[in-house]
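Deliverable D5.2: sample structural annotation.
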Amino acid sequence: MPLPFLTADRAFDTTDDVALPYDDRDRWRRPYRPGPWRVGAAAVLLLLASFVLFSSVIIAATATPASAATVFGFALVIVAGALRLLRMGVWVSARGCRHVAFVSTRTTPWDQVTAVRTVQQPVRWLGLPRTVQGQALVMNRRGRSSDGPTPLLTSHNADFLGRDPLAFDRAADTVEAWADEYRRG
């Protein structure tokens, strides 16, 4: 029995230029998917959290409730760290560009951005101190000429290491397009 709604051989009548009715430009969006290193690290942390949660149940059954609550709190910290790790990256909206790090978030309105461009430079490998030659998407902000431009994305961070090199180019082009569109308008 053929199921035409599950096959890819039918013609689609799509118009790529028309915005979808639920497409809200004021909503914060990540212009790329989280990379394999970031998702893998979060999965390992969540697996560790499940073992810690299981141990808190065992401790609650055999020891004092205070020690079980301590271990349960530690598991919640691990889960929160894994979720924050997945949330890290660059988010864009009509209001500006948001760079989410593990412990901080910096939002820059588009009117404060002077330039967003891709440059060849030494970049940190997976955020570690070791640097390798790669590409970085940097953002120059108004009033920040003393320190160098802020790197938003790199070709060797947890989102793009181990992926197709075109994934970094697509993400960088998308952020640059949002910056060009909203700095003018």
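Annotation notes: The beta strands are 89-92, 96-100, 105-109, 113-124, 131-141, 150-154. Helices lie at 36-62, 65-87, 165-184.
The annotation will be released with the project's public dataset once the embargo ends.
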